[in-house]
Design a protein that fits this description.
Layout (H helix, E strand, L loop, with lengths): L14 E5 L6 E11 L2 E6 L5 E6 L4 E3 L6
Antiparallel strand pairs: 1-2, 1-5, 2-3, 3-4
């Protein structure tokens, strides 16, 4: 499903990073759970929990390899 085009670009299961409000850093360890309109629903990979908030497309990016 990762190749399916969604309005926000990433489909369910895509490993992503989300922008943290704290120091505007990127946090790893998430994947796209789905969309709610134009907002992403994000799941924490470590325990499978879908976060209770949605994310704007500009606060989600595809997971990058460490050091890049």
């Amino acid at each position: 499903m990762e190749n399916q085009r969604y309005p926000g670009q990433f489909g369910p299961g895509t490993k992503v990073e989300v922008r943290s409000g704290y120091q505007s850093s990127w946090a790893r360890g998430f994947e796209v759970a789905g969309l709610d309109g134009e907002q992403y629903r994000v799941r924490r990979v470590s325990d499978g929990t879908v976060l209770p908030t949605t994310f704007d497309p500009d606060t989600v990016r595809k997971e990058r390899l460490p050091g890049l």
